[in-house]
């Protein structure tokens, strides 16, 4: 396993397991248990995913001590605001059946995220949260935010993969010490990711799959990755990315796959923003 040291001094595994869209309780619980048995020590969930209880149940049932698992959850804008966010964090603690969280992120850059951040800062000072960060904050919004808060985000979790690399954002965050965490690192299978000839040709050099090449590419850019799957064999495949290093030539070739466009949730598109804002009355507590 490779690790990254966050800007507050704690370390985080660079490879984690995501549970987005694993909605069934039993399937989510089983998937997290499988991931922990395979060797994953970082689990990423969110209030919006509505599976925190299943994640907590898996952690309770696992033989892996809680202290060895880096646990992340995210607060939805419905619960932004100083008082509401504090209550929401305690709700997540209860559902996850834990007395502390390793990382809590503000899930979207909308609503009263400044009030929400003040709540996270307070919980961080109290030791209830070990690190705090944001998600889906792109360069303009990130810069505005980071210059008006007391605590610089430890992590910004955004969509990133070989087809949407986000180098501008990475360069922006590096100046403030915020770690780059990639959701959707396998491009959600789009762009023919799993059969793409460039990934396949490079993978053949190392005896690796398209998925392993795509993950290794991001890891070598010093980014955290959280691939999601419900299949144990693919968990093993995704975990097996620390025994090879892509050459500079192969990294340069993969850089040419950049499209400049996200797969989902372009946060500058008013239609997508409206979709998020229409969820404002949803009960994700």
Automatic annotation (TrEMBL):
Residues annotated as binding substrate: 107
SUPFAM superfamilies referenced in this protein's UniProt entry, alphabetically: NAD(P)-linked oxidoreductase
Domain NADP-dependent oxidoreductase residues, every copy: 14-257
Entry annotation: catalytic residues: 49 (proton donor)
GO MF annotation list: oxidoreductase activity, acting on the CH-OH group of donors, NAD or NADP as acceptor
Annotated InterPro entries: AKR, Aldo/ket_reductase_CS, NAD(P)_OxRdtase_dom_sf, NADP_OxRdtase_dom
Site entry (Lowers pKa of active site Tyr), positions: 74
Keywords carried by this UniProt record: NADP, Oxidoreductase
Pfam families assigned: Aldo_ket_red (PF00248)
Coiled coil stretches, renumbered: none
Keyword NADP among record annotations: yes
Protein family: Belongs to the aldo/keto reductase family.
The name this protein goes by in its record: Aldo/keto reductase
Organism for this UniProt entry: Aerococcus agrisoli
UniProt lineage: Bacteria, Bacillati, Bacillota, Bacilli, Lactobacillales
């Amino acid at each position: 396993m490779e690790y990254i040291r966050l800007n507050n001094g704690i370390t985080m595994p660079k490879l984690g397991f995501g549970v987005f869209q694993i909605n069934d309780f039993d399937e989510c619980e089983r998937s997290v248990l499988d991931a922990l048995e395979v060797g994953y020590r970082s689990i990423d969930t969110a209030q919006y995913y509505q599976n925190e209880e299943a994640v907590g149940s898996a952690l309770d049932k696992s033989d892996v001590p809680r202290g060895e698992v880096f646990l992340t959850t995210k607060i939805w804008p419905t619960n932004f605001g100083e008082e509401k966010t504090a209550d929401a964090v305690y709700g997540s603690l209860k559902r996850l059946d834990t007395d502390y969280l390793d990382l809590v992120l503000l899930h979207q850059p909308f609503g009263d995220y400044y009030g929400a951040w003040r709540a996270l800062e307070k919980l961080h000072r109290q030791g209830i949260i070990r690190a705090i960060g944001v998600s889906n904050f792109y360069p303009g919004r990130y810069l505005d935010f980071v210059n008006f808060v007391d605590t610089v985000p430890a992590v910004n979790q955004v969509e990133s993969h070989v087809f949407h690399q986000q180098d501008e954002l990475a360069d922006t965050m590096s100046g403030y010490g915020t770690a780059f965490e990639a959701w959707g690192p396998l491009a959600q299978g789009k762009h023919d990711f799993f059969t793409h000839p460039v990934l396949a040709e490079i993978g053949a050099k190392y005896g690796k799959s398209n998925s392993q090449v795509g993950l290794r590419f991001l890891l070598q850019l010093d980014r955290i990755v959280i691939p999601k799957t419900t299949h144990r064999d693919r968990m093993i495949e995704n975990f097996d990315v620390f025994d090879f290093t892509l050459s500079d030539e192969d990294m340069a070739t993969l850089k040419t796959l950049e499209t400049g466009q996200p797969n989902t949730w372009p946060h500058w598109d008013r239609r997508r923003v409206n979709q998020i804002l229409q969820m404002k009355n949803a009960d994700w507590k």
